[in-house]
Amino acid sequence: NAGVTQTPKFRILKIGQSMTLQCTQDMNHNYMYWYRQDPGMGLKLIYYSVGAGITDKGEVPNGYNVSRSTTEDFPLRLELAAPSQTSVYFCASSYIFSGRAGGETQYFGPGTRLLVL
Amino acid sequence: DAKTTQPTSMDCAEGRAANLPCNHSTISGNEYVYWYRQIHSQGPQYIIHGLKNNETNEMASLIITEDRKSSTLILPHATLRDTAVYYCIVRVGGGGNKLTFGTGTQLKVEL
C-alpha cells in the first residue's frame, strides 16, 4: 500500500489565485481529514469526512472547500488564496481498531507546502 | 477535549530510555490518551494510545496514572531517529474526531 499520498509537494500561489490540493489513500479508510500547520505550531483541523458524500467543518474552515465523491479521494480547494493560508497542509485517513472501543489510528500524508505571495 | 500540558523540550542520550510526561488533569472518563510524533517536516506518526491500562507496542510503552490525570510515554532505547516533536492528545474514542495538536515536546536524542 502507498498509504496516504498528497500532491503537489510544494506550490507558490499569487494572492487571489485558486488551487486544489489532492489527497488519496489506498487503505479503504472511511475517515479522512485535512489539517494545516503553521510554523512552530501544532496542527489545526480544516475539514473532515466520515465517508463518501459526507463532509464537515473543523476548527479553521474559512477560505477552504472540500468534497468526497469516492472513498479514496479527499481534495481540498482554495478559491481565493491569501497570505494567511501560507502553511503546510496534511491529509490523514483513519480506521477504528476492531475489538478495542475508541481506538483510532490516523495515518498522515507527507504534506503540501504552500506559499502565498 | 481535555487540555494537555507537556514540557517544551527534553534531551536524551542514545540507547537510554526517554520518558516523556504529559499532564491531562481535566480528562473525562470516556477520553483516551494518544501519542503521535512528528519527525522534522514529515506528517505526524501514530505511536500508541490507551484508556486507563498501561499499554506497550513495538514502538513504546504508555504508563497512565491510576487517577488518569497524567501519563508517560517511554521509548525504551532511544536512537537518533527518535528525535522528533512528541504530541500527547486526549480525546474521545471513535472515528471522525479531530486530533487537537498542541505544541508538543521536542525530544533531542544525542550521542
Describe the structure.
The complex is a heterodimer of chains A (117) and B (111). Chain A has 117 residues and is mainly β. Chain A contains no helices and eleven strands. Chain A has strands at residues 4-7, 10-13, 19-25, 31-37, 43-51, 54-57, 64-66, 76-78, 87-96, 104-108, 112-116. In chain A, strands 2, 4, 5, 6, 9, 10 and 11 form a seven-stranded mixed beta sheet that branches. In chain A, strand 5 (43-51) and strand 6 form a beta hairpin. Chain B has 111 residues and is mainly β. Chain B has no helices and nine strands. Chain B has strands at residues 9-13, 18-23, 31-38, 45-50, 55-56, 61-64, 70-75, 84-92, 105-110. A five-stranded mixed beta sheet of chain B has the order 1-9-8-3-4, with no helix packed on it. Chain B has a four-stranded antiparallel beta sheet with strand order 2-7-6-5, with no helix packed on it. Chain B starts with 8 loop residues before the first strand and ends with a strand. Chain A binds chain B through residues 4, 30-31, 33, 35, 37, 40-45, 48, 50, 58-59, 88, 90, 92, 94-96, 101-111, and chain B through 30, 32, 36, 41-46, 49, 51, 87, 92-104.
Comma- or semicolon-separated keywords:
heterodimer, A: 117 residues, mainly beta, 52% strand, B: 111 residues, 4-stranded antiparallel beta sheet, 9 strands, globular
